[in-house]
């Protein structure tokens, strides 16, 4: 509210004159810069997302994934409606045919889509509903599809007991003992431990299973130093960083206005799961934010060898935790201050 009043006074001429002048100065100084960055973000999103053209291979695979996952979700409901999903089935089959025509008959994502179609067909046939949507097209696609050695799509039955057995050994203390560590031992970090953490990160929720997150592991000390110099947030401990991770998302997995910020959400959850995966392996980590301009981001892309469609979420410094380490206290807000319970809602 205070910010709104300040802006109103600036525009309408009310309020404290010296304060209004300061606001005008800040607006004149900052607004053009912010606008330029927004325009660059806008241009880059239109160029690489599937908003204008869904034909490039990665854009098309993202569409296939999102569409087959819509059918998967329908099949996982308590009582899927017989004959559901005609529009999604039609769109999925057309997208699969287009990909096969342009890029070849096989791809792991096509295998997943084929299994979803097979699961859909089996569901309806087992319930004596033979006239399900797109039946002929589904049967034709399945007849031509190679047999997968392992399940790639569809649904699976999970027992509550299995989940509870998995979470039973994990307490709140696991999460409370994760700290941002800025002092590491000299012990070498095994790449295999980071790869195990990446497997944990891949279980992060993502929009329609599109899995746009990626990890770039920097193991070269000179490149670690150069990347941290560009990031400018590791002064005082950069020399102790054993491995440096660059977390990115692929813009080609998104489209339309509503998904313009989706990469930051998916990438943020991916990064947090990655950090917990590192914690699970007994590794220390420190998140290094990437709140930078487009020119700074391009410099990091060139330095690390990223693709133009890669958006940088953050950098993560990784190393082994010494026997004792000093960490910031980092006091947290009372949970009641960040929790709101809504009940007895009236329209």
TrEMBL record:
A molecular-function term among this protein's GO annotations:
oxidoreductase activity
Q: Residue limits of the Nitroreductase domain?
A: 176-233, 252-320
Which CDD domains does the record cross-reference, listed alphabetically?
A: Nitro_FMN_reductase (cd02062)
Q: Name one Pfam family in it.
A: Nitroreductase
Keyword list, A-Z: Flavoprotein, FMN, Oxidoreductase
So which cofactors does this thing need?
A: FMN
The family this protein is said to belong to? Belongs to the nitroreductase family.
Q: What is this protein called?
A: Nitroreductase
């Amino acid at each position: 509210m205070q910010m709104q009043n300040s802006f109103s006074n600036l525009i309408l001429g009310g309020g404290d004159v010296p304060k209004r002048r300061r606001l005008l100065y800040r607006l004149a100084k900052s607004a053009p810069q912010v606008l330029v960055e927004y325009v660059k973000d806008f241009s880059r999103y239109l160029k690489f997302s599937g908003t204008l053209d869904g034909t490039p291979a990665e854009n098309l695979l993202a569409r296939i994934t999102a569409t087959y996952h819509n059918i998967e979700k329908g099949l996982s409901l308590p009582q899927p409606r017989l004959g559901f999903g005609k529009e999604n089935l039609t769109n999925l089959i057309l997208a699969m045919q287009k990909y096969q025509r342009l890029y070849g008959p096989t791809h792991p994502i096509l295998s997943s889509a084929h299994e979803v179609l097979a699961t859909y067909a089996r569901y309806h046939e087992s319930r004596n509903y033979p006239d399900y949507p797109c039946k002929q097209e589904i049967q034709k696609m399945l007849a031509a599809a190679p047999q997968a050695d392992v399940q790639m799509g569809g649904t699976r039955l999970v027992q509550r007991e299995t989940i509870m057995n998995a979470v039973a050994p994990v307490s709140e203390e696991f999460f409370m003992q994760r700290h941002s560590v800025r002092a590491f031992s000299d012990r070498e970090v095994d790449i295999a431990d980071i790869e195990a953490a990446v497997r944990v990160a891949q279980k992060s929720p993502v929009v329609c299973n599109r899995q746009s997150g990626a990890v770039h592991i920097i193991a070269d000390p000179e490149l670690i130093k150069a990347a941290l110099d560009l990031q400018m947030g590791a002064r005082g401990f950069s020399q102790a960083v054993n491995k440096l991770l660059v977390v990115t998302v692929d813009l080609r997995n998104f489209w339309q206005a509503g998904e313009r910020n989706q990469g930051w959400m998916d990438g943020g959850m991916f990064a947090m799961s990655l950090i917990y995966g590192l914690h699970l392996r007994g590794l220390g980590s420190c998140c290094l934010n990437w709140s930078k301009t487009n020119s700074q981001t391009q410099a990091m892309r060139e330095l690390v060898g990223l693709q133009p469609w890669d958006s940088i979420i953050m950098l993560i410094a990784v190393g082994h935790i010494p026997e004792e380490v000093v960490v910031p206290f980092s006091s947290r807000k009372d949970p009641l201050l960040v929790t709101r319970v809504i009940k007895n809602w009236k329209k």
